[in-house]
Amino acid sequence: MNKSISDYELIMRFIKGEQPCFEKLIHRHKNKVFAYISLYIRDQALAEDIFQDTFLKVIQSVKAGKYSDNGKFLSWVMRIAHNLIIDHFRRIKQMNTISSDNYESDLFNSKRFAEDNIEDDMVKRQIHQDVRKMISHLPDDQREVVILRHYAGLSFREIAEITEVSINTALGRMRYALINMRKLMEEKNISLTLN
């Protein structure tokens, strides 16, 4: 199947009965959607369940005619994932509490650091720990923008659509997040360099 086929074209073909078209859509967007879910849901099995629920809801919505294309299929899918994550936290009554154990180590786990010497590795681990602490001190809306931008790799336009705010608001939240993180660095005398 041609890679240049738009998401909308794939959806239209799926509606007409071409099942492989939906598989192509999932394959095209699964990494970003799963990365986003995994940032909030530490438990791998639960993250996979929410990922599957997201695409089940997408299928149901598409079949019910609830999707109108505006070139924003991925943002629409991310919004569905976002709502399912919020529903999950509401169910377990932990909406505003994200602990800093496995979630954080998964979030900052990077292959880039695999071959460093022990001393550099310790310094980098401390830097990651400091960054995690700073992010955890941010207000929820700022923390969300930082996570979506730097860990899910989304554009500010996509972030704005997912969080249902204007691009300027998303940019403003990032700006305030960076200002707040700089203040925390000064207050705590944190240096994020290897020297």
By oligomeric state, this entry counts as single chain
Quick one: biggest sheet?
A: none
CATH superfamily caption of the largest domain: Winged helix-like DNA-binding domain superfamily/Winged helix DNA-binding domain
Computed structural class: mainly alpha
Shape: elongated
Question: Span from first to last CA?
Answer: 50 Å
Protein topology:
Blueprint: H1 7-15, H2 19-40, H3 44-63, H4 73-91, H5 102-107, H6 118-136, H7 140-150, H8 156-163, H9 167-188
Description of the molecule:
- This protein is mostly helical and 195 residues long.
- It has two domains: 1-97, Rna Polymerase Sigma Factor, Chain: A; 98-195, Arc Repressor Mutant, subunit A (Orthogonal Bundle), CATH 1.10.10.10.
- The protein contains nine helices and no strands.
- Helix 2 crosses helix 4 and helix 8 (156-163) packs across helix 9.
- The longest helix has 22 residues, at 19-40.
- The chain starts with 6 loop residues before the first helix and ends in a 7-residue tail after the last helix.
- Residues 93-116 have low confidence and may be disordered.
Short note summarizing the structure:
This protein has 195 residues and is an all-alpha fold. It has helices at 7-15, 19-40, 44-63, 73-91, 102-107, 118-136, 140-150, 156-163, 167-188.
